[in-house]
Amino acid sequence: MVEKEIKSIDAATNEMLEKAAQEKVRTVFDRAAQMKPCPIGGEGSCCSNCAMGPCRVPLAKNKTETPEEHALRTGVCGATAETIAARNFARKIAAGTASHSDHGRRVVEAFKLMAEGKTKDFAIKDEQKLLKLALDLGVEIGNRKNEEIALDVAKVCEKEFGKQDGELAFIKNAPVKRQELWRKLGVVPRGIDREVVELMHRTHMGVDQDYKNIMLQGTRAALADGWGGSMIATEIQDCMFGTPTPTLSEINLGVLKEDMVNVIIHGHEPALAEMLAVESQDPELIKYAESKGAKGINLAGMCCTANEIMMRHGVPIVGNYLQQELAIVTGAVEAMVVDVQCIMQGLQEVARCFHTKLITTDERAKITGATHMQFDEHNPRESAKAIIKAAVDNYPNRGKNVRIPNIKTPLIAGFSHETINYLLGGLFRASYRPLNDNIINGRIRGLAGVVGCNNARTTHDGAHVAMIKELIKNDVLVLSTGCGAMAAAKAGLMVPEAAKQFCGPGLAEICETVGIPPVLHMGACVDNSRILIAATAVVKDGGLGDDISDLPAAGAAPEWMSEKAIAIGQYFVASGMYTVFGTTWPTLGSGEFTNHLFKDMEEMYGGKWDFQPDPVQAAKLMIEHIDKKRKALGIDKSRERVLYDMAMRRELDAV
C-alpha cells in the first residue's frame, strides 16, 4: 500500500485540499506535483542571459579536474559555472531588492500626499515615531506642525531611491563597527535604484565575470533593501498607520464566516488594507450587506498584508502563501482583493470554479480575467468603499457548496522594536538590558530570526514549525515575520501559554515573567528590518560584543521560495548573521561559488550562508553557532546574577 503524501501539517489546509480534489479544482499543490523542477536550473547552472543559450553547465565530475576539463564546462561565451551561478544569484538579489524597495517607494508617495494635504483619509498615527525619524534624518522639528515635518521626512526618504553618491541615511542605524566594515569593503549603498540597476548591468552578458566582484555589488544591493527600502517602508508605515503593539487575533481558514460577506485582502502594501479595515466597519455598508441577506462584513487578511492589518487592527488572518487558493475553495469568499507580490495567477482559475470575484487594485499587477478596480491614493476611502460594495453585491451569488473548516488558532502579534523595548523596561526605563542580562546569565541561550515563505516543494508549514520547536526547546527566543510567523501562529506558538508546553526552562521562565510568547511576531517580510534594528539595540545595550556578528544569534528561512528571500538573506549575512536556508539551494552547481557564500563571507562579514533541508538539523546548526558565539563572549557557562551586600562590596574594595 502506497502511503499518501502529506501536503501540509495544517488540518484546515488538508481539509480544503480534499474538497478541491472532490470538485476537480487544481491548486498549487497539484501543479507542483505535475511540474518537476529543472535540476540544472535549480542548482543555478543554467544561463539564459543572451540568445546564444540557454547554456547548461554541469557540476564538475571530480575535484581534480584539469584546466582543459574546466574549460569544457562553460557557456557559449565562455562563462564558467562560477560566473553563471553568481549572476543568477545576484539577479535574485536585484529582483528582491526592487520588490521591497518599490513597496517602500509607494509608502513614501502616500505619506507625502498625506503631508501635502492631498488626501484626507490618511493621518499621522504615531507622532513620537515621526519626531524620532525626523531627528535621525536631520529634519528640523522646532515649533513646526507635524505635517510640515512629515513633508520634509518624505522628501528625504524620496531622495534615497534616486541618490547617485554618498550613503543611504539609514546606514547610520547599524552598529558603528559594522558601518566601518562596509566602508572598508566598498559595499555601502549609494542610492537604492542605482544599486539595483548597476547589479542588473553587471550581470548582463559580457560585463562582470568575476564571481567575487559580482557578489560585492550583490551585497551592496541587498543592503540597499534591508537598510534602505525595507527600513523606509517599515518606519513610514509606523508613522502613518501606527507602530504595532501586542494585539490578540485569530488565524486560519476558520476565521471566515458562513453568514457574512467575506472579503480577503491579499498582498503586501498596507495603504488599501488600512482603508478596507476602516470601511468594513462603516454602518452604511454593514446595513447594505444586511439588505443582501448577510449579517455583516468580515474582513480577513492573507499573506503579508494580513500581518500588517492584524498587528494594527486585530483583523484575523485567513492563512499564508500556500493557502490563498484554498480560501476560495471554501466557497465562502465574495472577493479576493489583491495588490502586489506573492499573488498566484492560479487564483483566477480557482475563482472561476466558484462565485468569488478576484479584484486587482494596482496597475503594476494585473491578472488576465480578473476584475481591476484601481486603488486611488488621493481618494483611498472611496476606493475601499467601492471594493467592499462590489463584494457585498456578490453575496447573493454564493453557491450552496460552502465548507469552512472549523479550525482557527489565537495569536498575539505586534512585537515591534519599540514594543519589545517597552515590555522589557517600562515607559520610563525602556531598555534591552533585561534581555541582554538573561542572555548573559544563560536563561536565554540566544536569538533566532525564523522568517520567509512557504514552498510547495516541501510539506506546508512543516519546516517552520519543526525548526522553531527545536529552537525554543533549547531556550532560543525566536523572532518571526511573514509566512513563517503565520505557520508558528497556526501551531499555537504565539501565545504566552506556549512557553510552558514547548520551551526549555530558562526561556519558559522569561516568557512567564514578561508575559510574552516564545515566538515574537514582528510583522510582514518587509519588516525584517525590525529584526536588524532589534539586533543593533542589543549590541548598543552592551555586554554582548560591539557588532551584530558578535551576538549569539542566527537566521533562517526553512521554506523559502521568493527572490525577496535571497535579498533578505544576503543583507542579514552582510550584517554579520549566520543564515541557513532549507528546501533547496540555487548555487549548488558551482562548488567554488557556493564555498564563497558558505565560507569566504564569514571572513569578510562575520556572517555566512548555509543550507540544510532538514529543519531540525538546521536548528541544531543554529544552536551550534549560538553556542560558539557564547563561548567567544565568555558567557558559555550559566551564571546567576549576584546581589552584593555591603560586606561583599567592602571585600571588592579591599582587593
List keywords for this structure.
655 residues; alpha/beta; Substrate Binding Domain Of Dnak, Chain:A, Domain 2; Rossmann fold; 3 domains; 6-stranded parallel sheet; 27 helices; 49% helix; globular
Describe the structure.
By secondary structure, the chain is an alpha/beta fold. It has 3 domains: 81-241, Substrate Binding Domain Of Dnak, Chain:A, Domain 2 (Up-down Bundle); 247-397, 3-Layer(aba) Sandwich (Rossmann fold), CATH 3.40.50; 413-633, Rossmann fold (3-Layer(aba) Sandwich). The protein is built from 27 helices and 16 strands. The strands form 4 sheets. A 6-stranded parallel β-sheet has the order 6-5-4-7-8-9, sandwiched between helices. The chain has a 6-stranded parallel β-sheet with strand order 13-12-11-14-15-16, sandwiched between helices. It has a two-stranded antiparallel ribbon with strand order 1-2. Helix 6 (127-137) packs across helix 7 and helix 11 (270-279) packs across helix 13. The chain starts with 10 loop residues before the first helix and ends with a helix.
Whole-number count of domains: 3
Question: Main β-sheet: number of strands, strand sense, barrel status?
Answer: 6 strands, parallel
Rg result: 25 Å
Q: What is the helix tally? A: 27
Strand adjacency order, main sheet: 6-5-4-7-8-9
Task: Give a quick rundown of the structure.
This protein has three domains: about 80-240, Substrate Binding Domain Of Dnak, Chain:A, Domain 2, CATH 1.20.1270.30; about 245-395, Rossmann fold (3-Layer(aba) Sandwich); about 415-635, 3-Layer(aba) Sandwich (Rossmann fold), CATH 3.40.50. About 50% of the residues lie in helices and about 10% in strands.
